[in-house]
Amino acid sequence: METLLQDIRYGIRMVAKAPGFAAIAILTLALGIGANTALFSAVNGVLLNPLPYEQPDRLVAVYSKTEQFSHSSISYPNFLDWVREQRSFSGLAAFRQEDYNLTGMGEPERVKAEMVSADFFSLLGVKPVVGRLFRLEEDQVGAQPVTLISGGLWKRKFGSSPDEVGKNLTLNGVSYTVIGVIPADFRYQSGNFHISDVYVPIGQWNDSTFRDRRAGMGMDAVGRLKPGVTIGQAQADMDAVAQHLAEAYPNADKGTGITLLPLKQDVVGEIQPFLLVSLAAVGFVLLIACVNVANLLLARSTGRAREFAIRSALGAGQSRVIRQLLTESLVLSCVGGSLGLLLAAWGTKGGIQLLPEALPRAQSVHIDSRVLLFTLAASVLAGIFFGLAPALKSSRAGIHETLKEGGRGSSGARHRLQGLFVVVEMAMAVVLLVGAGADALFSLR
């Protein structure tokens, strides 16, 4: 440990003695590691992190399926029959978007609303900040109008006062009793759902078209699988339910099926291949950055050849010299990684604010412990990658020739290695450009 600390101190001094070289190398690494960190934070937030619900692996998005569309809205009468006849879910909940006029609280306001089944929030494991959730008897025609409000509306209109539970809101001219407050950070990104100010029981809506088995009216559903039930078993169960309804209601349900998708797959959609390809692309960018820094180290080592020869003459073994040079490389890569982490945090936050709808689960993209470990690993591996070849080359310089020629004896070999690095760098750049061009052509098609 004492020798390691000595190597680190000496490495920091050697890097500080060449500020121009250090600045270029650190900035190059910061851009490469920062790009990788930014993309990995997106992959981590969108693909790797679990959905922020209770036991999210058991949640399934449920759609109606027709001959034209595999993901279609559900008619409310069919949904009620699904709930009664299915055997695979511990709960099924429906939802659809709506907008209401909020009056009686200053200037009239158009607010976003979501009609949901009584067990929608309990199925997801969402608990109210204050108050309670809907009851089953409230989710039917003729029940007393009740509503849940979002944490944002609660703060904006009621100053976050818990005493407002039990008060009334006038929505589309109807007085609704506020029974609870949904957390402000609640998000659901599947189907016909939008982040809303108010939530009302879907079963209270007595629109004649909504009650028609042939009309979907933009309604989708989510289900929670029973313990031990796979999505394949649930699909077979729901196929049997759909077949029974097609026989019972041939005019409305002939050719109508049911589509089940893991909720995470439905939320993420088709973004997964794009993120993984982008991560691979910025991986090439980091490799190019490492080759650049390796070339800089080789050029710098020409002026330090006499130093390495003297160290060897005084008894330093080849492994000792390699370790010292790798330590200097790791100092550069860790400083570059720290700067890259700052750039990634700033760039990711700015990008999400500019394009909040471009990325599903954007609110889950942030710097966490997994991203920090990734950045540390990328920095260490990059330091070893770009530092190993120059270290091996410098440690093998002949002592007598180097001292006799003032450090210029192995310049030809270094030039050959630098030429090889240039070729490798150009090859990776061509691969990256070809990949980007192919992806652009595929997107245009």
Secondary structure layout plus pairing:
Elements: H1 2-16, H2 19-48, E1 59-65, H3 76-85, E2 89-103, E3 109-116, H4 120-124, E4 130-131, E5 146-150, H5 151-158, E6 168-171, E7 174-182, E8 198-201, E9 220-225, H6 231-248, H7 250-253, E10 257-262, H8 263-268, H9 271-303, H10 305-313, H11 318-354, H12 369-395, H13 399-405, H14 411-444
Parallel strand pairs: 3-8, 5-7
Antiparallel strand pairs: 1-9, 1-10, 2-3, 2-6, 2-9, 4-7, 5-8, 6-7
Helix pairs in contact: 1-11, 2-9, 2-11, 2-12, 3-6, 9-12, 9-14, 10-13, 11-12
Notes on the protein architecture:
The chain is 55% helix and 15% strand. By secondary structure, the protein is an alpha+beta fold. The chain folds into two domains: 2-52 and 269-444, no CATH class; 67-255, no CATH class. Strands 2-3-8-5-7-6 form a six-stranded mixed β-barrel. Helix 9 runs parallel beside helix 12 (369-395), helix 9 packs antiparallel against helix 14 (411-444) and helix 10 crosses helix 13. The longest helix has 37 residues, at 318-354. It is elongated and about 90 Å long. The two termini are 58 Å apart. The model has no long low-confidence stretch (mean pLDDT 85).
